[in-house]
Amino acid sequence: MTDEQQQNSGNQDQTLTNRQGHPISDNQNTRTVGDRGPTVLENYNFLEKITHFDRERIPERVVHARGAGAHGYFEAYGTIGNEPASKYTRAKLFQEKGKITPVFVRFSSVIHGGHSPETLRDPRGFATKFYTEDGNWDLVGNNLKIFFIRDPIKFPDLVHAFKPDPVTNRQDVNRIFDFISHIPEAMHMITWLFSPWGIPANYRQMEGSGVNTYKMVNADGVGHIVKYFWVPKAGVKNLTLAQAEEVQAKNFNHATQDLYEAIERGDYPEWEFCVQIMSDDEHPELDFDPLDPTKIWSPEQFPLLPIGRMVLDKNPTNYFAEVEQAAFGAGVLVDGLDFSDDKLLQGRTFSYSDTQRYRVGTNYLQLPINRAKAQVATNLRDGQMAYHVDGVEAGENPHVNYEPSSMGGLKEAPKAGKDRTPYVQGPVVRQKISRTNDYKQAGERYRTFQDSERDDLILNLVTALKTCNPDIQERMVGHLMQCDAEYGTRVKEGLEQAKM
Ligand code: HEM
């Protein structure tokens, strides 16, 4: 028992009750006619217990179902690189050196269900909820710095192709590469994913990245486009497939266990938080579009600027209440942080809160893990499981659930700074971005990998592709050739050898 548990148990009446507060004096026997039954229906305690049990699960997340979480804090440096943070953003959490903001982080894998092995080749989620004084900011990122697609309309297809076959209920590389071989922009992500970076060793030694381009806005309303990064203080550690299989043979919860045990023993995981910054324009000098989430901004040209650090120092007290019900949204920003025009980000902004209203419920933001620590005072009312009335704690007249009002209703907040008012003009189209440059960064990544990473990448791709249909293999080799001739040739030769 932890100290906290002992303290709780010592000071409180431990009498078992039902949810109505009725003490339960017999929790061993259902109420029956005679000791052999039948059972009777006027048996409230049994009915409450069994019907609640029947409803213990909420729908799993459609993606990122398997996860682990922890509480901690973010400490601002007050600067972005060598400059005051205020030069780029008025977001309050970054302004003063040493300013602490509580956080909750959920790490995850993407494709399989809630108890799937944590050794699978899959991107890892790295979602952070900052409980700032201006309300919540969620940075819903991944461990890899890029994504498979750049248009959100493709997301359901991408996920369907990676999820188990709807007939056999097994993940099938033939379905995965059938889809991927039609998506040239995915080659960069595939190059990362099939290298050892596709299986992080644990969550503590894993990078995080916001992937999408966001904006920072200062007090004058001037915006810059930014990308966010978590750099683990303990370094990055990945596994080859053989190493992962060894772990998986003995433990399919190793990353959850590693995070929990490290925090229990006081070995608190820590990351430095960094940003890359560009002026807010199209940057025609670059051979890629800075809003394209399939691209990296070269760190040589756009250095990672430290802005703070994060420490995770407390495990959840209940997995379901805190980790399963946690709801992060790519569109949940605070003043001083803004969206960019990145189409994928805009699709995500709609999707997360939509699924959470269904998955957790209409009032998911009233749950303690999701509720802002700042004042919440809204005129949103009712719906399933309304837990309390948002505005009343702020002194709102309970008769007034609308705005404007002269009878004691809630009032609009003063403006926090100058509005940023980007000018948007153009034909409404369904069209790809013009600077797609789908292969260049994938080729650069291949050439930048160490020899061992490159060998592992080729082995993993050949192992996956050798069971695919010949036309899928051909399309994939065609794409990889365009990334880098050696890369494509090695995969082609590997596939030819596998046929012998
Ligand atoms: C159009 C593209 C995308 C769509 C529509 C989308 C949609 C979703 C949905 C519906 C969920 C489940 C949320 C829940 O039930 O609480 C989710 C979870 C998640 N997504 Fe995405 N996603 C997209 C792209 C991305 C990208 C690019 C990243 C990485 C930056 C990402 C990172 C995550 C993470 C980390 C979670 C799990 C959050 C948690 O721990 O609860 N997603 N996504």
Short description:
The protein is of the alpha+beta class and 500 residues long. Helix content is 28%, strand content 16%. The chain has three domains: 16-54, Irregular (Cytochrome C Oxidase, Chain J), CATH 4.10.91; 67-366, Beta Barrel (Catalase HpII,  Chain A, domain 1), CATH 2.40.180.10; 440-499, no CATH class.
Key phrases:
500 residues; alpha+beta; Cytochrome C Oxidase, Chain J; Catalase HpII,  Chain A, domain 1; ten-stranded antiparallel beta sheet; two-stranded antiparallel ribbon; 13 helices; 12 strands; 28% helix; disordered N terminus; Catalase
Shape descriptor = globular
Q: Helical content, roughly?
A: 25-40%
What's the CATH topology label of the largest domain? Catalase HpII,  Chain A, domain 1
CATH homolog superfamily of the largest domain: Catalase core domain
Number of spatially distinct domains: 3
- End-to-end Cα distance, whole Å, is 60 Å
Question: How does this model look, in words?
Answer:
This protein is an alpha+beta fold and 500 residues long. It has three domains: 16-54, Cytochrome C Oxidase, Chain J, CATH 4.10.91; 67-366, Beta Barrel (Catalase HpII,  Chain A, domain 1), CATH 2.40.180.10; 440-499, no CATH class. The protein has 13 helices and twelve strands. It has helices at 3-11, 44-54, 155-162, 173-180, 187-193, 241-250, 254-264, 319-324, 343-359, 440-448, 451-465, 470-483, 485-499, and strands at 67-76, 79-80, 83-84, 100-109, 124-132, 135-142, 208-209, 214-217, 223-232, 270-279, 305-314, 337-339. Strands 1, 4, 5, 6, 7, 8, 9, 10, 11 and 12 form a ten-stranded antiparallel beta sheet that branches. Strands 2-3 form a two-stranded antiparallel sheet. It is globular and about 75 Å long. The structure holds protoporphyrin IX containing FE. Residues 61-64, 67, 106, 108, 125, 127, 140-142, 147, 152, 155, 211, 293, 326-328, 344, 347-348, 351-352, 355-356, 359 line the site of protoporphyrin IX containing FE. Residues 1-38 are annotated as: Disordered. Its cofactor is heme.
